[in-house]
Amino acid sequence: MASNAVCPFCFQRIDSSRLWYQCLGRGNTECKKEADEAREQLTKSTRETYPTFPPPERVAGAAFCPTCGGRTNLRACPQCHTALPSDFGDSRSPMIGLVGSKGSGKTVLMTVLVKQLKDVVGKRYDAAIRLATDNPDGLQGLSDYQARREAPLYKDRVLPPTTNQMAARGHAAPLLLRWQQETTRLGRTSVRSTLLSFVDTAGEDLNDVQTAFTLKYLSVCDGLIVVLDPFALPGARARLNLPDAAVDVDDDAPLDVVNNITEMLKVDHEIKKRRKLTLPVAVVFTKIDAFFPALNRGNPLMAATPTVAGYDNADGLAVHEHVLALMHEWNAQDIDTHMRLNYADFRYFGVSALGAEPDYETRTVAAGGVRPHRVEDPVLWLLSKAGTVRAA
Prior knowledge:
It contains 10 helices and 16 strands. By secondary structure, it is α/β, with parallel strands linked by helices. The chain folds into 2 domains: 4-84, no CATH class; 90-386, P-loop containing nucleotide triphosphate hydrolases (Rossmann fold), CATH 3.40.50. The strands form 5 sheets. A 7-stranded mixed beta sheet has the order 11-12-13-10-14-15-16. The longest helix is centred in the N-terminal third of the chain and has 19 residues, at 106-124. It is globular. The model is unreliable at 165-170 (pLDDT under 50).
């Protein structure tokens, strides 16, 4: 029976019961590794792999490479020919889009979020959370990702350059994580896997509706994290003493970005008039640490994420209400009006990927290093919607 799924690499809908195979290079003759034309066209990845071939008739398990005769059970996407995780067809695979305005800190947030999930959240949930792709974020393997994403930020304390526009990159390469966790049901224990696909985009990709419509992956996402820069709001900026280098966006960009995303989603999901989008959306205000001096100690935005192995809904609602109060103080309630009129399920979050303000002139992290604050909250909320984690 056909099973409709979405490839987490090319965002095409595929039949997970008819996945292709990829050779492992273990045959009697030598198979040559080379860049795959379909993969390069759909994902822009030039990583060299062994040949990919369609499933032979009446074969349900392993297959044999038609070139070298080698046995393989490695499955691949029929469209882009990218190798899929071994549990792709048997696991839930919620795709979470990460979008937002220029200068909002999406790239830093995603780098810190992935490390926080692997090193902190995994232990809290007694789960194994690991990268599950050979080209995370478009890079050449795990070691390349760690050297070019994590090391500069955590070891060298240097902020990354801004993300290139899609027009220049051609494709937003996903970052795929596998979340494995033991579950018990009716007295039986089993291991459940969930694949999480995050995609970073350049803020310029969402500056106008025409560009936003090119981001086709948004239409197949199961949840969205919309990242907004409070420094772009005049009302919020007036409460801070920011250097010019900290402000890198037009005053109307946050609402424009939210509006453009909404327009694209309504067209792709064929939403009728007077109906709201049902896609859960986490609206995340970054750099919240800059406002800590003005908040009282009892404000939930100041508290750390609850350490329970589940999404604390009461805590999340409290954060939502306090962020909404800040939006009114910042004269940004028009964003809330837009969300209420267009979305049936959304929540506000305040996070800090770095934990303290960096030196915006030199683009370096504060002396204390990276100290993330509540960065996992939006993902845990979305995962509670998907049933991956429980809501407490």
